[in-house]
Amino acid sequence: MTTSGTIRILLADDQEAVRAGFRLVLDAQPDMRVIAEAADGVTALHAARRLRPDVLLADIRMPGLDGLELTRRLAGPGADPPVRVVVVTTFDLDAYVHAALRGGASGFLLKRSGPTLLVEAVRAAMSGDALISPQITARMLHRLVPPVDRDGNPPVEPLTPREEEVAVLVAGGLSNVDIGEELFISPATVKSHVANLQRKLVVRNRVGIAAWAWQSGLAQSDQI
Fold first, then answer.
1. CATH code of domain 143-216
2. Which of 6, 78, 168, 218 has its CA 20 to 30 A from that of 35?
3. Class of domain 7-132
4. More confident call, 14 vs 137
5. Vertex 164, ends 136 and 194: CA angle to 5°?
6. Whole-prediction pTM value?
Protein backbone atom coordinates (compact mmCIF):
# COMPACT_ATOMS: atom_id res chain seq x y z
CA MET A 1 0.00 0.00 0.00
CA THR A 2 1.28 3.45 -0.86
CA THR A 3 1.71 6.19 1.73
CA SER A 4 -1.58 7.65 0.47
CA GLY A 5 -3.38 4.44 1.45
CA THR A 6 -3.95 3.23 -2.11
CA ILE A 7 -4.06 -0.56 -2.61
CA ARG A 8 -1.81 -1.49 -5.54
CA ILE A 9 -3.19 -4.39 -7.59
CA LEU A 10 -1.70 -6.68 -10.24
CA LEU A 11 -4.09 -8.51 -12.60
CA ALA A 12 -3.18 -11.90 -14.09
CA ASP A 13 -5.63 -13.41 -16.58
CA ASP A 14 -5.16 -14.64 -20.14
CA GLN A 15 -8.40 -12.97 -21.29
CA GLU A 16 -7.99 -9.29 -22.09
CA ALA A 17 -11.72 -8.62 -21.67
CA VAL A 18 -11.64 -10.02 -18.13
CA ARG A 19 -8.65 -7.88 -17.19
CA ALA A 20 -10.35 -4.81 -18.66
CA GLY A 21 -13.52 -5.50 -16.67
CA PHE A 22 -11.61 -5.97 -13.43
CA ARG A 23 -9.58 -2.80 -14.04
CA LEU A 24 -12.77 -0.82 -14.64
CA VAL A 25 -14.24 -1.97 -11.32
CA LEU A 26 -11.09 -1.63 -9.23
CA ASP A 27 -9.85 1.69 -10.60
CA ALA A 28 -13.28 3.14 -9.79
CA GLN A 29 -12.58 2.60 -6.08
CA PRO A 30 -11.02 5.62 -4.37
CA ASP A 31 -8.48 3.47 -2.52
CA MET A 32 -7.44 1.05 -5.29
CA ARG A 33 -5.26 1.23 -8.38
CA VAL A 34 -4.33 -1.43 -10.93
CA ILE A 35 -0.60 -1.02 -11.48
CA ALA A 36 0.00 -3.73 -14.10
CA GLU A 37 -1.53 -6.61 -16.04
CA ALA A 38 -0.21 -9.99 -17.14
CA ALA A 39 -1.66 -12.39 -19.72
CA ASP A 40 0.25 -15.46 -18.54
CA GLY A 41 1.62 -16.92 -15.33
CA VAL A 42 5.32 -16.39 -16.02
CA THR A 43 4.83 -12.70 -16.78
CA ALA A 44 2.70 -12.39 -13.65
CA LEU A 45 5.41 -14.03 -11.54
CA HIS A 46 8.11 -11.65 -12.77
CA ALA A 47 5.82 -8.61 -12.46
CA ALA A 48 4.85 -9.53 -8.89
CA ARG A 49 8.47 -9.94 -7.84
CA ARG A 50 9.47 -6.68 -9.50
CA LEU A 51 6.53 -4.46 -8.54
CA ARG A 52 5.56 -6.00 -5.16
CA PRO A 53 1.80 -5.32 -5.49
CA ASP A 54 -0.36 -5.27 -2.40
CA VAL A 55 -2.75 -7.79 -3.99
CA LEU A 56 -2.48 -10.07 -7.01
CA LEU A 57 -5.70 -11.26 -8.66
CA ALA A 58 -4.85 -14.48 -10.49
CA ASP A 59 -6.80 -16.73 -12.83
CA ILE A 60 -6.12 -20.47 -12.59
CA ARG A 61 -5.84 -21.60 -16.20
CA MET A 62 -3.14 -19.45 -17.79
CA PRO A 63 -0.38 -20.33 -20.25
CA GLY A 64 3.17 -20.76 -19.02
CA LEU A 65 2.38 -21.11 -15.32
CA ASP A 66 -1.05 -21.82 -13.89
CA GLY A 67 -2.56 -19.72 -11.13
CA LEU A 68 -2.21 -22.41 -8.46
CA GLU A 69 1.54 -22.77 -8.99
CA LEU A 70 1.82 -18.98 -9.24
CA THR A 71 0.07 -18.71 -5.88
CA ARG A 72 2.34 -21.30 -4.29
CA ARG A 73 5.49 -19.52 -5.47
CA LEU A 74 4.36 -16.06 -4.38
CA ALA A 75 2.31 -16.80 -1.25
CA GLY A 76 3.24 -20.30 -0.10
CA PRO A 77 5.89 -21.56 2.32
CA GLY A 78 9.25 -20.04 1.54
CA ALA A 79 7.86 -16.94 -0.17
CA ASP A 80 9.73 -14.02 1.36
CA PRO A 81 8.02 -11.67 1.57
CA PRO A 82 4.75 -13.32 0.52
CA VAL A 83 2.31 -11.64 -1.86
CA ARG A 84 -1.40 -11.56 -1.09
CA VAL A 85 -3.00 -13.60 -3.88
CA VAL A 86 -6.73 -13.82 -4.54
CA VAL A 87 -7.58 -16.55 -7.04
CA VAL A 88 -10.40 -15.49 -9.38
CA THR A 89 -11.64 -18.22 -11.69
CA THR A 90 -14.52 -19.65 -13.68
CA PHE A 91 -13.97 -23.16 -12.34
CA ASP A 92 -15.95 -24.09 -9.24
CA LEU A 93 -13.98 -27.20 -8.26
CA ASP A 94 -13.19 -28.23 -4.68
CA ALA A 95 -9.75 -29.45 -5.74
CA TYR A 96 -8.89 -25.96 -6.97
CA VAL A 97 -10.18 -24.33 -3.78
CA HIS A 98 -8.14 -26.64 -1.56
CA ALA A 99 -4.99 -26.29 -3.68
CA ALA A 100 -5.27 -22.50 -3.73
CA LEU A 101 -5.74 -22.21 0.03
CA ARG A 102 -2.96 -24.71 0.74
CA GLY A 103 -0.76 -22.64 -1.55
CA GLY A 104 -1.32 -19.55 0.57
CA ALA A 105 -4.13 -17.79 -1.30
CA SER A 106 -5.87 -14.95 0.52
CA GLY A 107 -9.18 -15.66 -1.17
CA PHE A 108 -10.95 -17.71 -3.83
CA LEU A 109 -13.57 -15.99 -5.96
CA LEU A 110 -15.71 -17.13 -8.87
CA LYS A 111 -15.75 -14.69 -11.76
CA ARG A 112 -19.54 -14.70 -11.77
CA SER A 113 -19.58 -13.39 -8.18
CA GLY A 114 -19.81 -9.80 -9.41
CA PRO A 115 -18.00 -6.51 -8.79
CA THR A 116 -19.03 -6.04 -5.15
CA LEU A 117 -17.42 -9.28 -4.02
CA LEU A 118 -14.36 -8.56 -6.17
CA VAL A 119 -13.78 -5.33 -4.27
CA GLU A 120 -14.56 -7.01 -0.94
CA ALA A 121 -12.05 -9.78 -1.71
CA VAL A 122 -9.27 -7.25 -2.28
CA ARG A 123 -10.07 -5.43 0.96
CA ALA A 124 -10.33 -8.72 2.87
CA ALA A 125 -6.89 -9.77 1.62
CA MET A 126 -5.43 -6.45 2.72
CA SER A 127 -6.89 -6.86 6.21
CA GLY A 128 -5.50 -10.37 6.61
CA ASP A 129 -8.79 -12.17 6.01
CA ALA A 130 -9.69 -14.60 3.23
CA LEU A 131 -12.91 -14.20 1.26
CA ILE A 132 -14.28 -17.29 -0.47
CA SER A 133 -17.21 -17.12 -2.91
CA PRO A 134 -20.50 -17.64 -1.04
CA GLN A 135 -21.46 -20.51 -3.37
CA ILE A 136 -18.31 -22.42 -2.42
CA THR A 137 -18.58 -21.53 1.26
CA ALA A 138 -22.16 -22.77 1.39
CA ARG A 139 -21.22 -26.08 -0.21
CA MET A 140 -18.30 -26.62 2.15
CA LEU A 141 -20.36 -25.70 5.20
CA HIS A 142 -23.10 -28.11 4.17
CA ARG A 143 -20.55 -30.91 4.12
CA LEU A 144 -18.60 -29.97 7.23
CA VAL A 145 -21.09 -28.51 9.73
CA PRO A 146 -23.08 -31.16 11.64
CA PRO A 147 -26.74 -30.31 12.30
CA VAL A 148 -27.81 -29.62 15.88
CA ASP A 149 -31.05 -28.80 17.64
CA ARG A 150 -32.18 -25.30 16.63
CA ASP A 151 -33.24 -24.63 20.22
CA GLY A 152 -29.63 -25.14 21.31
CA ASN A 153 -28.37 -22.05 19.47
CA PRO A 154 -31.26 -19.57 19.34
CA PRO A 155 -31.00 -16.02 17.95
CA VAL A 156 -30.90 -13.20 20.49
CA GLU A 157 -34.20 -12.07 18.92
CA PRO A 158 -36.71 -14.22 17.01
CA LEU A 159 -36.26 -14.18 13.26
CA THR A 160 -39.11 -13.02 11.08
CA PRO A 161 -40.38 -15.42 8.39
CA ARG A 162 -38.72 -13.24 5.75
CA GLU A 163 -35.40 -13.28 7.62
CA GLU A 164 -35.57 -17.08 7.76
CA GLU A 165 -36.13 -17.15 3.99
CA VAL A 166 -33.13 -14.89 3.47
CA ALA A 167 -30.97 -17.00 5.80
CA VAL A 168 -31.78 -20.15 3.81
CA LEU A 169 -30.86 -18.45 0.54
CA VAL A 170 -27.63 -17.06 2.02
CA ALA A 171 -26.81 -20.64 3.06
CA GLY A 172 -27.35 -21.62 -0.56
CA GLY A 173 -24.65 -19.18 -1.65
CA LEU A 174 -26.91 -16.64 -3.35
CA SER A 175 -25.86 -13.01 -3.64
CA ASN A 176 -28.08 -10.12 -2.53
CA VAL A 177 -29.15 -9.56 -6.13
CA ASP A 178 -30.03 -13.25 -6.56
CA ILE A 179 -31.96 -13.31 -3.28
CA GLY A 180 -33.85 -10.18 -4.30
CA GLU A 181 -34.88 -11.79 -7.57
CA GLU A 182 -35.93 -14.98 -5.78
CA LEU A 183 -38.06 -13.14 -3.20
CA PHE A 184 -39.16 -10.22 -5.43
CA ILE A 185 -37.55 -7.60 -3.20
CA SER A 186 -34.80 -5.06 -3.84
CA PRO A 187 -31.11 -5.76 -3.14
CA ALA A 188 -31.20 -2.91 -0.61
CA THR A 189 -33.99 -4.67 1.28
CA VAL A 190 -32.01 -7.91 1.19
CA LYS A 191 -28.99 -6.06 2.58
CA SER A 192 -31.14 -4.81 5.46
CA HIS A 193 -32.35 -8.34 6.21
CA VAL A 194 -28.77 -9.64 6.13
CA ALA A 195 -27.70 -6.94 8.59
CA ASN A 196 -30.59 -7.88 10.90
CA LEU A 197 -29.60 -11.54 10.67
CA GLN A 198 -26.01 -10.75 11.61
CA ARG A 199 -27.22 -8.78 14.62
CA LYS A 200 -29.76 -11.36 15.79
CA LEU A 201 -27.45 -14.34 15.25
CA VAL A 202 -24.42 -12.47 16.64
CA VAL A 203 -22.27 -13.31 13.62
CA ARG A 204 -19.87 -11.12 11.67
CA ASN A 205 -20.71 -11.96 8.07
CA ARG A 206 -22.63 -14.10 5.56
CA VAL A 207 -20.49 -17.12 6.36
CA GLY A 208 -21.75 -16.96 9.94
CA ILE A 209 -25.35 -16.75 8.74
CA ALA A 210 -24.82 -19.75 6.44
CA ALA A 211 -23.14 -21.77 9.19
CA TRP A 212 -26.03 -21.08 11.59
CA ALA A 213 -28.64 -21.96 8.94
CA TRP A 214 -27.03 -25.32 8.18
CA GLN A 215 -26.19 -26.12 11.80
CA SER A 216 -29.64 -25.23 13.09
CA GLY A 217 -31.33 -27.32 10.42
CA LEU A 218 -33.14 -24.31 8.97
CA ALA A 219 -31.36 -24.91 5.66
CA GLN A 220 -31.91 -28.32 4.09
CA SER A 221 -30.27 -29.66 0.95
CA ASP A 222 -33.64 -30.12 -0.76
CA GLN A 223 -34.41 -26.40 -0.23
CA ILE A 224 -31.29 -25.07 -1.96
1. 1.10.10.10
2. 78
3. alpha beta
4. 14
5. 65
6. 0.70
